[in-house]
């Protein structure tokens, strides 16, 4: 049985329960495994006025009887599953409902308490695999339903190996779900200049928070995202350094922009290495196949140029995303891979899937080679048995695929190598006709624009705008919400005092509403 020891709470009972004839009563839940809501739970039904949150302490601010909180864990055995909850009932006369596999049991609590208590729910019959436990409030005399820290499990079903997130350092990653990757075998030792991939996301597999990375290489990646219900992006990122803070990368090591597409927005990224980011807002659709093309070649002056294109199926044209120059290194393309992941922890209970087909590489001599072998790999969330709902394989239409999220039970061994039938027709692309720096209007628009102070408590000032009036938008860290917008004044100073603490991105636009640059800042 997997040991789950993270936080040690004293189980506090009333005096009459704790002591009997002067002796401490044994804990009836000592053999139960403790599933922390902090790393394994989600708000799966949320009304408009939802106040509930999953924090590092578990479920908090539970006030609405329409809200459903779902906790997931995996059991090795089928059979009886005994369930209890560890909770703090701050309101008297509270009744909640606990549901497993469509069977519900109610838990009543008559008195208010500021202490955590372990309370039996009942027994349920479950199959081997992932189990979902739903909590829903029914009645309460006070303002809130209980704060819940753990689901406690025991019985025949929990007697074998169980899987759930038990490492508080992994809570955010487990709630996002395991990342799944495909690493491709390249059938040539010659220098590779182009990498081509066709990606289809099946209908219904494009949940918000999904990132389907099509063309990964040694210095970055190209793919598309679902940022919100109304926003989707085509994203091309290139690393400049292993440092996680862009401001720590020396000016001499910074990537520079050769050019960008007309509607491309650009900026910096950090936290996973540092580099430059370029993207277009594009309402791509599930069920449609999209083409991605990447180029990487030395510029013959000691640097490397990386360029990315996206084929818009709706308009039947190649769109330039951007071309970046990486200094002090001469590379062709290598280390080809794809991945599927979720970047919004609150949506980690939703699934996603992508198919990767008709992949080719083109050598610097102009010869196309098909890609037919891929190795399936996973991240530490999976290998550490915090969560294991990720698979790869080959679809019925001869495409590699990746699937993750949603707490499904289908499995595939990591490090498995898959193969597809060899494609017979290389991409019909006239390389010379692709839009590039000599054909696009926007050339190297990055100015020496900086923010200071950064971090800041009240104001940020933009240096390098020459006192011209510019429009700006400030985005949340996940780029899913505009939290502030306006125009700069003559001093190029922006009041950020009302923003909550956190990391933000400010996007600057010129008087023609063309994106100039995107910069990250920290609000203290």
TrEMBL record:
InterPro entries listed in its UniProt record: DUF3472, DUF5077, Secre_tail
Organism domain of life: Bacteria
Signal peptide: 1-22
DUF5077 domain residues: 35-157
Protein's UniProt keywords contain Signal: yes
Domain Secretion system C-terminal sorting: start-end pairs: 451-517
Keywords: Signal
Alphabetized NCBIfam families for the sequence: Por_Secre_tail (TIGR04183)
Protein name: DUF5077 domain-containing protein
Lineage of the species this protein comes from: Bacteria, Pseudomonadati, Bacteroidota, Flavobacteriia, Flavobacteriales
